[in-house]
Structure formats: structure tokens, C-alpha cells
């Protein structure tokens, strides 16, 4: 089956107590750079166009913490078990009705996953049925005998495993059934116990797992945070039709916007604003109108691509402001649903998305109802 036709889900394991991180909240609910760790982890996957669904596995005692951390994001959750394997199995069971083709299992306290690594992992798992990201062992390695070194180990044969780890959903569930009651340190260990071959892809040194108390004390004094504003502008002609797409919402009216894609000027302007903030050109470079594959495409795909690029550059979108300029249709009745739709695309609370509408008092092409224009501005933060 082509990758584009496969459904891919993510199980994020966040039910642990994180005792090695010291006293305080479970580490997945602690703040990192002003944001709960679990929220950063979820956002990393929400911005990836190949991911169709997430299931976050939490401890029953953490419901209030989870609700607060994830506010404004549309993500499902279930309750975990007494150990990692039980929690992963609970997440897989919660996805049973969706029956995805592939599933990625990821640590909730590993929030720095990049879109590029997700791509590598999905490609490998699609080809082989199971894949994990690994890093080489670069230090001299020995077995130990008490407080003395014993046998040297050839480090060329050693790798360090990371998450997410990707598997064919049915194969991973079968592996759990074959090893019922056993606890494994990760799903690759379970897969090997079940006789599955597991492919390796390059991991990412930045994809660290927050584990110890000192991991939550970054040297922010020497890592300045940049606050960057990006702007975008777009125009599309109006023609006779049955409705226009604006802000990801189809508004019934006797017009339609004319363009190669769905011609959603608001989302096009938003895409350009994001690309501008991260220095990635404009929408035409990424989605050329000369390419037939973008004919009639939903503009939400363009926004998702821009968000994914921002995340890959350690940039975080924190606010969006849009102005729609038109005589028709009326924006007011649809403003709230537009804000919700855009907030979902950007993984932001609705309060961080603003939409304004205005007319040109009958002047110009918008005043003559010949077209619609949109301005967008986004605010992005990035650590240098």
C-alpha cells in the first residue's frame, strides 16, 4: 500500500511517575521553556501531515494536569497500567476501532522530535514493518565487575535506541499477545522477543529524553529567545458558485473563490506569514500552481507543511492575527468556527488566534465584489 494511503497513529506514553527527575510534578507535566513538556511533545506530531491520530496514555491521577497542559489541543487520551508495556498496550487497545496501518510509540518526556526524523522512521517502517531511530555509541565501552572494568565491548556493534519506534499495528499487538504479562524497556525489545526484524534509521542527538532534575535547568541565560513576526498577504478572484473556503471553513453563498487549490485566501496568507517568520520563502515556492497535484487541494495542507517546517527549526508559533477584506460573504457569523479551525491547525488555544473582517466601503476590487483579500501576521519564538 502506498504511504499516502496508510493511516498512521501515535501512542504517546505519559503515565510514568518520573521519580529520577526529583520532587515535584511528573516530568511530562513540568514546564520547559514556558510550556508543559507533554504539550510540546503533542505539538510535534500534530504538525506532521502523515499523522492521522494520537493517543496519549496518562496515569489516572493526572487527569487534571493533562487537561490543563493540553488545553486547546484536540487529542485523545486513555489511562495506562502499572508499567510501560501495560501502558503501551492500553494505548494500542484504545486505537483498535481505528485499526491504523502503522503506529509510532513515543515517550511523553521526549519533546524535541523533529519532522525529518519522523519522516525517516515512517519510510523505513513502511518498507520493513518495524523501525527504530538509533545513535552510535561513541565512547569506549566495557562490561563491569563490581567497581572494576571487565571485558571490552566493540562499540561498533552497539547503538542507543530512541523513540518514536514504528511498527505495523497488527504485528505489534500480536507481539504483545505472544508475550502477555512481560514488561519490556521498549517496544523494540518486545518485537525482538516476538521474532520480528527491526530496521534502524539515524536518530537525532537533539531528541533527548528529559529524565533527571538537571535536565529541567537549561542555560536560558546564554540561549536568547528571539521573537519573530511574519506577515502574509493573498488575493483571489470571486466567481459564481455555491460557497467560499475561508479560514478552513466552507461558507455557503452564491460565490466561489477561483484558484488552483481551494483558494482559501486566509489560509494562504497565514501560510506565507509562517514561512516568512522562519525564512522559508513563500507559498508559491512550496506549492507551485503549475503542479497538477495541488489542483483543488485543501489549504490546510499548506498550513500543516509550514507548521512542520517551523517545528523542525525549533520555532514555536505563539499567536496568529488575520484580517479578511471583503464585501461578501459576511464573516461575523463564521468567525468563531474559523478561529477554532485555525487554532487546531497551529496547535494553539483559540485565545491565541484572532480574526478580523473589514470592507473597503465599496472601493476597489473587494468593494466591487470581484475578489477577497487577506492579511496575516504570526508571532514565532525561537531559541538561538
Automatic annotation (TrEMBL):
Annotated residues for binding of 4-CDP-2-C-methyl-D-erythritol 2-phosphate: 234-236, 260-261, 282-284, 358-361, 365, 368
Annotated positions for site Transition state stabilizer: 20, 27, 260, 359
UniProt-recorded Gene Ontology molecular function terms: 2-C-methyl-D-erythritol 2,4-cyclodiphosphate synthase activity; 2-C-methyl-D-erythritol 4-phosphate cytidylyltransferase activity
Site residues, Positions MEP for the nucleophilic attack: 155, 209
EC id: 2.7.7.60, 4.6.1.12
Pfam families: IspD, YgbB
Cross-referenced InterPro entries: IspD, IspD/F, IspD/TarI, ISPD_synthase_CS, MECDP_synthase, MECDP_synthase_CS, MECDP_synthase_sf, Nucleotide-diphossugar_trans
2-C-methyl-D-erythritol 2,4-cyclodiphosphate synthase domain boundaries: 230-380
Region (2-C-methyl-D-erythritol 2,4-cyclodiphosphate synthase), start-end ranges: 228-384
Superkingdom of origin organism: Bacteria
Annotated positions binding a divalent metal cation: 234, 236, 268
NCBIfam families assigned to the protein according to its UniProt record, in alphabetical order: ispD (TIGR00453), ispF (TIGR00151), PRK09382.1 (NF006899)
Described function: Bifunctional enzyme that catalyzes the formation of 4-diphosphocytidyl-2-C-methyl-D-erythritol from CTP and 2-C-methyl-D-erythritol 4-phosphate (MEP) (IspD), and catalyzes the conversion of 4-diphosphocytidyl-2-C-methyl-D-erythritol 2-phosphate (CDP-ME2P) to 2-C-methyl-D-erythritol 2,4-cyclodiphosphate (ME-CPP) with a corresponding release of cytidine 5-monophosphate (CMP) (IspF).
The name this protein goes by in its record: Bifunctional enzyme IspD/IspF
Source organism phylogeny: Bacteria, Pseudomonadati, Pseudomonadota, Alphaproteobacteria, Maricaulales
UniProt gene name: ispDF
Amino acid at each position: 500500500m502506498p504511504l499516502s494511503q496508510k493511516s498512521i497513529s501515535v501512542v504517546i506514553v505519559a503515565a510514568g511517575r518520573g521519580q529520577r527527575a526529583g520532587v515535584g510534578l511528573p516530568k511530562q507535566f513540568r514546564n520547559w521553556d514556558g510550556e508543559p513538556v507533554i504539550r510540546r511533545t503533542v505539538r510535534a506530531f500534530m504538525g506532521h501531515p502523515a499523522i492521522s491520530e494520537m493517543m496519549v496514555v496518562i496515569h489516572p491521577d493526572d487527569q487534571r494536569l493533562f487537561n490543563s497542559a493540553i488545553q486547546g489541543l484536540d487529542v485523545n487520551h486513555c489511562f495506562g497500567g502499572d508499567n510501560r508495556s501495560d501502558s503501551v498496550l492500553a494505548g494500542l487497545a484504545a486505537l483498535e476501532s481505528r485499526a491504523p496501518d502503522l503506529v509510532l510509540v513515543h515517550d511523553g518526556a521526549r519533546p524535541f522530535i523533529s519532522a525529518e526524523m519522523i519522516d525517516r522512521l515512517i519510510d523505513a517502517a513502511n518498507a520493513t514493518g518495524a523501525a527504530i531511530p538509533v545513535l552510535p555509541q561513541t565512547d569506549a565501552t566495557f562490561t563491569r565487575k563490581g567497581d572494576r572494568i571487565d571485558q571490552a565491548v566493540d562499540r561498533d556493534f552497539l547503538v542507543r535506541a530512541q523513540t518514536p519506534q514504528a511498527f505495523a499495528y497488527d504485528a505489534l499487538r500480536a507481539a504483545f499477545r505472544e508475550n502477555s504479562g512481560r514488561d519490556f524497556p521498549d517496544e523494540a525489545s518486545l518485537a525482538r522477543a516476538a521474532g520480528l526484524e527491526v530496521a534502524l534509521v539515524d536518530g537525532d542527538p537533539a531528541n533527548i529524553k528529559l529524565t533527571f532534575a538537571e535536565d529541567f535547568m537549561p542555560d536560558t541565560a546564554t540561549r536568547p529567545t528571539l521573537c519573530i513576526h511574519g506577515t502574509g498577504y493573498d488575493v483571489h478572484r470571486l466567481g459564481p458558485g455555491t460557497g467560499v473556503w475561508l479560514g478552513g471553513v466552507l461558507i455557503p453563498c452564491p460565490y466561489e473563490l477561483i484558484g488552483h487549490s481551494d483558494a482559501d485566501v486566509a489560509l494562504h496568507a497565514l501560510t506565507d506569514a509562517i514561512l516568512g517568520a522562519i525564512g522559508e520563502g513563500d507559498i508559491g515556492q512550496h506549492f507551485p500552481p503549475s503542479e497538477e497535484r495541488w489542483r483543488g487541494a485543501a489549504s490546510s495542507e499548506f498550513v500543516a507543511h509550514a507548521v512542520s517546517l517551523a517545528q523542525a527549526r525549533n520555532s514555536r508559533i505563539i499567536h496568529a492575527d488575520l484580517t479578511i477584506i471583503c464585501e461578501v460573504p459576511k464573516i461575523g457569523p463564521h468567525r468563531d468556527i474559523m478561529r477554532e479551525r485555525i487554532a487546531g491547525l497551529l496547535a494553539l488555544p483559540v485565545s491565541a488566534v484572532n480574526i478580523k473582517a473589514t470592507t473597503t466601503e465599496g472601493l476597489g476590487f473587494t468593494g466591487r465584489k470581484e475578489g477577497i483579500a487577506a492579511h496575516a501576521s504570526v508571532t514565532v519564538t525561537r531559541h538561538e
